[in-house]
Amino acid sequence: GVDCGGDSRMCCRQEFFVDFKEIGWEDWIIQPEGYHMNYCAGLCPLHMAGIPGLAASFHTAVLNRIKAASAAAAVDSCCVPTQRRPLSLLYYDRDSNIVKTDIPDMIVDSCGCT
Amino acid sequence: AAKGTWCPACGVAALAPGIQRDALLALAKQSILAKLHMPARPNIPQPPSRGTLLTALRRMRAQRSDTAAFPGMLQDGHIPHLHPGMGLQEYEILSFAESGSSTSRRVHLHFRFSRELAGSTKILQATLYLFWAAPSPQPVTIRLLQPDPVGLNMTVASETRLEVRKSGWTTLDVGAAVQSLFRQEIPRLTVELEVPEDWESPFPSDHSDSHWPFVVAQAQARTPHHVHRR
Fold first, then answer.
1. Could you say which DSSP state residue A26 is in?
2. If I label B7, which of A23, A26, B106, B207 is the partner at 20 to 30 A Cα–Cα?
3. What is the rounded distance in angstroms from the CA atom of residue A32 to the CA atom of residue A106?
4. What tens digit of pLDDT does each residue of A66-98 get?
5. For residue A32, cis peptide bond before it (omega within 30 degrees of 0)
6. How far is it, in rounded angstroms, from Cα B200 to Cα B132?
7. What is the DSSP letter of B87?
8. Which residues of B touch A (CB under 8 A)?
């Protein structure tokens, strides 16, 4: 997958960190200190469709050129997460119990075109 | 999309950076609360003291050899993952006792569980940890009480008689009692400890940090019920 740079326009992963202290949640969330709420953004023109992340090989690049030249209706595809992992939380619930849980698929590790 | 242009995928004008950040923070809060089945962030009445917490973690580590989630949690700032049970979200809950009515021979302890959690999970196992300050062996009766369906009286869910031989921690499996509580309106477990007449109470009178009773429960998200229509 590709991480978004300053002026990325193609499909990439945008990092976004939520600091629990900044949102006033540090009193009830014991660990961790924040949440990497990354998300996918950018364009997925037809010739990029179906390629997770950017073309990395010559073969893929040629395939892309063929697709781009094809007369098929140019319908863009979507930039979506291709790898995600759980968010492990340790927190106080409203009865002051301490709860530990792993919320699945909360952190986006990489993006790609459908 | 670049500032000021239209987002090609969703056809909405790109948000100004400040507004976009606020929108993402609001989305993060909403997403975490929804996954924890919480209507809003909890207000913490009184978190357990650090001494109570650390004693409980040491006790649990001593009791269980597996890589339980809790004991590792405060050690190195790393939170070990729970055992992935078939991909369903799992929870480990540490609940400290609240003191109830007590006499010289009888002590009541209350353990509360949140309704959101009780409504969306099933208990895999639950263990009660008790500390005795008994200079000599003596009999003790432990009753697990729970509100009757109407909620007016307490009924005995189970009764265990045991011989306390010396001072120290002991554990009792309360999984079945907590599981049945999780189906109640008020998921609260009451534990009654009683000694026979003329026996000295083995319950630590000071109930200091290092002897506070607690329950550790493992729970797993309930799979959503599929209703099949014929």
1. T
2. A23
3. 14
4. 766 665 555 667 889 999 999 999 999 988 899
5. yes
6. 12
7. T
8. 2, 8-9, 24-25, 27-29, 31-32, 35-36, 38, 41-48, 53, 69-70, 73, 77, 79-82, 84, 87, 89-96, 112-114, 116-117
